[in-house]
Design a protein that fits this description.
two-stranded antiparallel sheet; USP_CS; hydrolase; about 15% helix; globular; Cathepsin B, Chain A; seven-stranded antiparallel β-sheet; Papain-like_cys_pep_sf; UBP16 hydrolase
């Protein structure tokens, strides 16, 4: 779907990105890089129908396929805050003709705020809110190499999130000012073995997939 936005607000977010100053190697830094503002110039210029018609006239009058390309800006932002947020970390890099596993620890927290990465007109966010908070409830970890390895998971056993139910079933935006992670006990699951673990153990894992549920 293509829509025309006010140029003054097209690249605005719910919270100021410049105040974020994310730590390198953190999930905030990954999100910041993924949603950064990109300039499309030279061979990456954007085909502009308006500029083409202004220069050559209506499209049906253009005998030879001549088009006008213009410099532009591009930015990936969240337009609808989901009830459940799944973050998939890229755990490989190109090394010549081979793929190499990335084992670097990415720092993440139990509560994250997506507001700096959401459009100023983000759906499912109550008017006037400048925070979009999520609480961690699951992590998938991969150990091994690109050719072989083992998947394990961390899951939090917790009470029902009524705000999440309202959002999924009725489309209501959360109103309560919940800023703390959902209380519960973390467990580590590896095949048939299940063991209770601390939150610090979860946060030190080599996350491959992160699962968050909406708080605010």
């Amino acid at each position: 779907e293509v829509s025309t936005e006010d140029p003054e607000t097209a690249f605005c977010t719910l919270a100021n990105r410049e105040d974020l100053n994310p730590e390198e190697g953190s999930i905030y830094h990954c999100l910041y890089q993924f949603t950064r503002n990109e300039k499309l110039t030279e061979t990456n210029k954007l085909l502009c129908d308006v500029c083409t018609q202004r220069h050559y006239g209506p499209k049906n009058n253009i005998k030879s396929e001549k088009y006008v390309y213009t410099n532009a800006k591009k930015q990936m932002l969240i337009s609808l805050a989901p009830p459940v947020l799944t973050l998939h970390l890229k755990r490989f890099q190109q090394a010549g003709f081979n793929l190499r596993k990335v084992n670097r620890h990415i720092k993440f927290s139990e509560v994250i705020d997506l507001a700096p990465f959401c459009t100023v007109k983000c759906k499912n966010v109550a008017e006037g809110k400048t925070k979009v908070l999520y609480s961690l409830y699951g992590v998938v970890e991969h150990s091994g190499t690109m050719r072989s390895g083992h998947y394990t998971a961390y899951a939090k056993m917790r009470s029902l999130n009524n705000h999440l139910s309202d959002l999924v079933l009725r489309g209501r935006s959360p109103q309560a000012l919940e800023t703390e992670p959902v209380k519960g006990q973390w467990f580590h699951i590896s095949d048939t073995h299940v063991q209770a673990v601390s939150a610090s153990k979860v946060l030190s894992s080599q996350a491959y997939l992160l699962f968050y549920e909406r708080l605010l």
